[in-house]
Amino acid sequence: MSNKLLVGYDGSDVSRRALDLALTQAKLTGASLMIAHVLEWSPYSFLTQEEIEERHKRRNDELERAHTVVLNPVLDAVKESGVAVDGVVKYGQIADVICKLAEEEGASQIYIGRHGQGSLSVRVFGSVAGKLAQTAPVACTIVP
User: Fold this and answer.
1) Lowest-pLDDT choice from 69-73, 77-81, 123-127
2) Nearest-angstrom CA–CA distance, 41 and 64
3) Which residues contact 85 (CB under 8 A, 6 or more apart)?
4) Measuring CA to CA, which residue among 81, 95, 83 is closest to residue 36?
5) Is the pLDDT of residue 79 over 70?
6) N or C: more exposed end of the chain, with fewer CB within 10 A?
7) What is the mean pLDDT of residues 86-99?
8) 3-state secondary structure of 2
9) What average pLDDT does the chain have?
10) Has residue 42 got a pLDDT over 90?
11) Which long-range contacts does 79-84 make (Cβ < 8 Å, 24+ apart)?
12) Could you give the CA distance from residue 122 to residue 112 in angstroms, rounded to a whole number?
């Protein structure tokens, strides 16, 4: 079994707590970390003709901004701890992308923060943490 821990990270306080827990576990077990930042994207969104024309440029800009603002600073901080770490930014449905990454990377465990928001959309569609708890291909630790 792989000794790689996958962390869903969005820059929020709860995702930082999930990362801190995974980092502690990695130090204890000699595991490596994979930090994933997922830009939520729905294939069912409706775009205007102008938005379709600008979509490719916008997506590249969003990916670059996600690397610069969210992923790279946290990768630099984790590297200072001495734990092997890699990171990725992907587009898609967050829980689906994290499950697929866990399989592709051979992760042994997923760490994700739980925001605990009770919005209507969460009640109707479910939360990312809730979906991961039900569908993750490996053990999933949900950090409040």
Assistant:
1) 123-127
2) 16
3) 32, 33, 34, 35, 75, 78, 79
4) 95
5) yes
6) N
7) 93
8) coil
9) 87
10) no
11) 81/23, 81/27, 82/27, 83/23, 83/26, 83/27, 83/31, 83/32, 83/33, 84/32, 84/33
12) 16
Q: Residues of 35-64 as b/e, b for ≥16 C-beta within 10 angstroms?
A: bbbbbeeeeeeeeeeeeeeeeeeeeeeebe
Contacts of 103 (CB under 8 A, 6+ apart): 137
The pLDDT, as a whole number, for residue 100 is 97
CB contact set of 107 (below 8 Å; sequence gap of 6+): 2, 4, 5, 6, 34, 101, 138
pLDDT of residue 127: 81
State yes or no: pLDDT of 123 exceeds 60: no
